[in-house]
Amino acid sequence: MKENSGREFFEQARKLGLKEYNKNISRGEIGYLTSLEGIVKNTEIVSHVDLGLIEIPLKKIIGTYTHLRSLSFAKNFMPIIEAGTEFEKKWSALCEAHLDEGIKHSIKVYEYMNFFYVIEGNKRVSVLKFFDAYSISAKVTRLIPKKDEANKDIRIYYEFLEFNKITGLNSIWFSSEGSFKTLLHYLDQLDPNISDFHDKYKYFEVYIYNSFRDIYLNAGGDELPITTGDAFLEYIKIYGLPHKINSDDLSSSMKEFIKELAALNNSKEIDILTSPLENSQNRMLSTLTSLVIPKKKLRVAFAYARKIESSGWTYAHELGRRHIEKVLRDQVSTTYVENVPEDERAYDVFEILAESGYDIIFTTSPIYFNATLKCSLEYPHVKFFNCSGANPYTHVSNYYGRTYEPRFLTGIIAGAMTQRNILGYVGTSVNPEVISSINAFALGAKMVNPYAKVKVAWTNEWNSRIKFNDAGNKLIKLGADIICNRTLDVPHPVSTDYGVYSMLCSIDKKRGVPDKYLATPIWNWGIFYEKILRNILNDTFKTIVDMFSSNSQLINFWWGIDTGVVDIFYSDEEVPKDTQKLVNLLKTMIITGAYHPFTGPILDQQGNIRISPNESASHEEILSMNWFVDNVIVEDYNNQ
């Protein structure tokens, strides 16, 4: 029996090879193993680097060097040559040796673009792949192509070379630029003495990445059009880099995680709702089917980052909660949690709310997005909403206002009233929502004053009065006589009505402090919360798209001035009457769709045309905006 075992395995391997060969032929593809000499035939190789004898993962060996050798194997490295040949005898003998004592001899390969191609040892690779071995010892020569900035794959490969130089790892590959640098940042957090391993990077590969890879692929991850490295990076962005993979915990949440990855790779499924559902034909609010015509009150929880009495942002959302308590009191019961930690501990709070039986959880700060997503994967029966301009996920819908609209109107006021033509803008962080608001403010100022410039100072914190004041003071020193987002130094009625704690302020020249409070965008969160919850409660939505089906859409609620969710407050006494007329006219035009703040021609800081004449920026362009208009000055004076 032992004499025939190698041949029996050869026949099994050959069947796998023929199946793979025929599958590729039926697709109109070449059925044989890939050969490197054909790939690099027209490629300029600038360097041959001897990497010496190293252990390489078999999954990264995808071909042979010569075309002639490739004809013996299918693309999965299984043999396709008939039995009874010299090839079959040698393959079977290697199989016997592997079963008796293991294959001890190394192979010789070329590495090109982080894949390996066999020069010597094709049968050894074939046998080990048949038995699903992990790695083999190989003498590796790296072929480095000429750097080509027009070739994305080569740009990524050069990033890999830097990563590989530091870590020695070659089992990971990404499809996006910058990913190797991001992963290295996470790996720097690993304790070098994490285990008996002398190399923390090797520990990461063996005990963290490979464990993730096995669970991910077993759950169907190989069906997604991304690399395992791409999936792993998304995982640690949500959960952080684990020091060890808990197989039971990861296996239980992997299917939900894969749904998120599938949705992220199908951007066409993102549905940006820019108007309330009752004004849209055939709209379906994606939510829990169990929430349609509930038999009991809908339980809704709100998570606040700060205390209600000390934070305008929190107070504004609290006003929204009180509104729905009033208008939906017979159908909804609510609760709130204040001072939710602004770090990974937020997950613990959301978990308690989910365990307590709340049907819907609103997390009211962009900083909670990752913790919200993490909790939503663990509790798919709960509907989560996060207040941010980030891209939504299958399990988390995002809601925010089109803040650029009221910012554009406040920019008109600032441009009309400035005497120095230097306006200040206190920005929280560099993200598309903040950038679009700064740009809209600058465009509004430019509309009425072509000489107006907008200087930006950053707080790098979304709700700190101290940092807002510090940034405002820096802008005053830079000559700004009107500042957007200056914190209120004295109580103002708008604070009580809308929870606003910063406004567009003119500056007292002598004292260098806010002089007059001119205008500010305001939020009416109660309108949003009421409309969303009414659509969930409304029994006309008897056919609902199940949030967790394979056809679910990603929902981003992004409402503007026309809905009343965002608006503008300005001082009747301080703002000139003619300016008020212009603001009111343009507000009406924005509401009716007669005018769009981002109407071209619009140039960026380098003088490039970003929006062509008579065209308007799309929703997607605004939600991904990463450039500044030409009258914005962003310098490093705030140690950004």
Structure, described:
The chain has 640 residues and is an alpha/beta fold. It has four domains: 1-146, Conserved hypothetical protein from pyrococcus furiosus pfu- 392566-001, ParB domain (Alpha-Beta Complex), CATH 3.90.1530.10; 149-265, no CATH class; 270-392, Rossmann fold; 404-525 and 564-634, Response regulator (Rossmann fold, 3-Layer(aba) Sandwich), CATH 3.40.50.2300. Helices cover 39% and strands 20% of the residues. It is elongated and about 100 Å long. Pfam families: Bmp.
State the low-pLDDT regions, or none.
279-294, 539-553
Q: What portion of the residues fall into strands of 2 or more residues?
A: 15-25%
Using the coordinates above, name the CATH class of the largest domain. Answer: Alpha Beta
Q: How many extended strands? A: 22
The largest pleated sheet is described as: 7 strands, parallel
The termini sit apart by 72 Å
CATH architecture field of the largest domain: 3-Layer(aba) Sandwich
CATH superfamily of the largest domain: Response regulator
- The average pLDDT is 86
Structural class: alpha/beta
Structurally, how many domains make up the residues?
4
Tally of contiguous helical segments: 20
Q: Which fold name fills CATH's third level, the topology of the largest domain?
A: Rossmann fold
Walk across the major sheet and give the strand order: 7-18-12-11-10-8-9
How helical, in percent, are the residues? 25-40%
Based on Cα principal axes, name the global outline: elongated
